[in-house]
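[job 0412] stage=complex_fold ligand=phosphoenolpyruvate status=START
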Amino acid sequence: MGSRKKLLLGNWKMHKLRKDVPAFMESLLANIGDKNSWSQKLNFGFGVPATLFDVALSTTKNTGVKILAQNCHFEEQGAFTGELSCAMLQECGLHGSIIGHSERRQYYAETNTYVGKKWNSLALKGLLPVICVGESKIEREQNKTFDVVRQQIDDALLQVSEDARKCEFVIAYEPVWAIGTGLTATPEMAQDVHKFIRNELSKHFGATRSGTISILYGGSMNAANAKELLAMPDIDGGLIGGASLKPDEFAKIIKAAL
Ligand code: PEP
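[job 0412] stage=complex_fold status=DONE, emitting structure tokens
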């Protein structure tokens, strides 16, 4: 198993206005101390709405905090009203983008194929793709979790070129039934799926590379349950929605990961 630094990513979804960001970052950074106290052990950042890209980047300059988008389009440019290309995200100075979040799959009909095309485009622009996968409640009840997750990864990878496959990426396992519901997978349940994902990745990328890929857990992670989840061998961090909106709560999760 390779050495994997913990990674905590907040997903702000459609929350916060520009005026909220400086105070949030100031409070968070004051709480956790400068990057010498945490950067050896973990990385962290936020997927923010596009209206906040510049203010989030400027208020975190030189702090080590990563700023990501929550979505992107896979085409370089074109007639795609309302969309943002990876070139645009790159030009803004972002670190990467969350893609395939279950809310986008559910409300915007995003398919595994679309997610794969986005993965490919982000990687080729030098941006970090954070690929969300996970089963619904019904799929879990029908014991289809592994099949669903395998299909999400395999279908997406069909769209990812050889060059793009060489680039770093992160998988976020997010059981849909645990997102924003207060229900969390137990550490053992999550570990089972993370181990399965790592094994699947080793079929595509080999065991050595698979041991270096970060697999995050997402689904009602908070200050109270983070430590136990993050202690599991294949849980390399978290994708955190609700609990990333308050600086003191997010700071507690960072401290739990240290
Ligand atoms: C998410 O949005 O990816 C998420 C995991 O949300 P929450 O932490 O609120 O369940």
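Residues 11, 174, 179-180, 218-221, 239-243 surround phosphoenolpyruvate (CB under 6 Å).
[job 0412] exit 0
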